[in-house]
Amino acid sequence: LGSLGPDAGALLCVSPAVGLLSPSMRAALSVLLVGSQPQRVLSLYRIGRPSRRPLRLHCMMSADADSKQQAAGLLGQGVADGRELFTGDTHAKHYAQFRPTYPPELYECISRFVGDGAARDLAMDVGTGSGQAAREIAKMYKKVLATDVSEAQLDEARAHSVQAGITNIEYQREPAEELNVEHGTVDLIAVAQALHWFEHDKFYRRAYQVLKDGGVLCAWGYERCDMGNEAAQKVFHEIYEDILGKYWSPRRRLVEREYENLEPRNIPPTDLSAPSLTELFPVVQRERFDMPVPMTIADFMGYIKSWSSYNTYRRKHPEANDPLPDIRRKLMAAYGTDDDSTPITITHPVFVMFLRKK
Q1: In what order do the strands lie in the sheet with 54-61?
Q2: In terms of DSSP bridges, do strands 54-61 and 40-46 run parallel, antiparallel, or are they unpaired?
Q3: What are residue 65's phi and psi, to 5 degrees?
Q4: Measured between alpha carbons, how far is 350 from 130 in angstroms, rounded to an integer?
Q5: Radius of gyration in angstroms for the set of CA atoms belonging to the chain, rounded to a whole number
Q6: What gap in Å lies between CA 43 and CA 11, rounded to an integer?
Q7: What residues contact 275, with CB distance under 8 A and at least 6 apart?
Q8: Residue 351's beta-bridge partner residues?
Q9: 3 — phi, psi (to 5°)?
Q10: pLDDT per residue over 251-266, tens digit each?
Q11: b/e sequence 111-133, b meaning 16+ C-beta within 10 Å
């Protein structure tokens, strides 16, 4: 591999036991294969599959040095994998103010899968962010333990809980892979628009430990929005892909695939002596529905400010012009108005993945 050089082709074949690669080897491969050409693609294949179909773990690697750490995370190194993008106070406030509120249909969907006779004593909201999911789940369970790695996000979540008069949520700062709760005590683990940031094998195994027998892990996210008209959709594509595309973490692309890559059967093990994740979570079920979000054009500008890609762009190019004023003008033209308080409705496809512990 060393003889290939950093600008070599972007296809790497490894053995069926992807998990046998040591962390240092994974990191070395990520550095080797991120060459000087932009938008390299590394696909991991399992040798031995009759069809030679690729694993559903595809690492979109851009060539700049900052992406090497992200690439290492996708290969399993799993260090600062993008979660740090949500730790700033300003970003946390934008996130709390402008991210869409999940509809009642989502929580009805969760309740149906959990079942009427299931215990509802303790739920966890992992990667809680501003805590909007935790506050709704608190209406369904006696106690909710909400966790996040960002103290700024937790501060926002606590403030919203106090404002809403909710007293049965406990917030604590910790990584998703290190849930600090007794084994076999949790009825439900919810993950709202955050699963793609986790170290998946570690998280699933820790979730299995803390869930009760028959307990449920529920992860959901929302895909790119439909702007409601063709002209506005082109403006959305301009900011999402043309301007900010290379500033999205590779892990964001997992959302665009609706977490298909993150089903237990697609996660390479870190320890081949451990039971497979499909043994731990034999039941997998999916739901999908649309989430209309009424807002104004000004609100949509705030929503863009909550994007990790926008914050990465601004951090890397502090002297560059902010692209949002131009996007604002183009959106107003697309909607036929000169007032950014004009109401619009965007629609996000919501996808939900349920896992039930054996």
Answers
A1: 11-14, 40-46, 54-61
A2: antiparallel
A3: -60, -30
A4: 19
A5: 21
A6: 6
A7: none
A8: 221, 288
A9: -70, -15
A10: 988 999 999 989 999 9
A11: eebbeeeeeeebbbbbbbbbbbb
Q: What is the pTM for the complete model shown?
A: 0.74
Token pair of 355 as six digits = 């896992």
Beta strands at 186-192 and 122-126: parallel, antiparallel or unpaired: parallel
Strand partners for 60? 41
Residue in the structure block whose two tokens are 């063709």: 230
Q: Tokens 């003008």 map to which residue?
A: 329
For residue 31 the two structure tokens come to 């550095």
d(C-alpha 291, C-alpha 306), whole Å: 18
**Six-digit token pair at 297?**
């054009």
- Please report how many Cα atoms fall inside a 13 Å half-sphere around the Cα of residue 327, on the Cβ side: 26
What is the rounded distance in angstroms from the CA atom of residue 106 to the CA atom of residue 132?
13
DSSP-based three-state secondary structure for 119: coil
On the CB side of 98, CA atoms within 13 Å amount to 19
- How far apart CA 31 and CA 322 sit, in angstroms, is 31
Maximum average pLDDT range among 14-28, 55-69, 323-337: 323-337
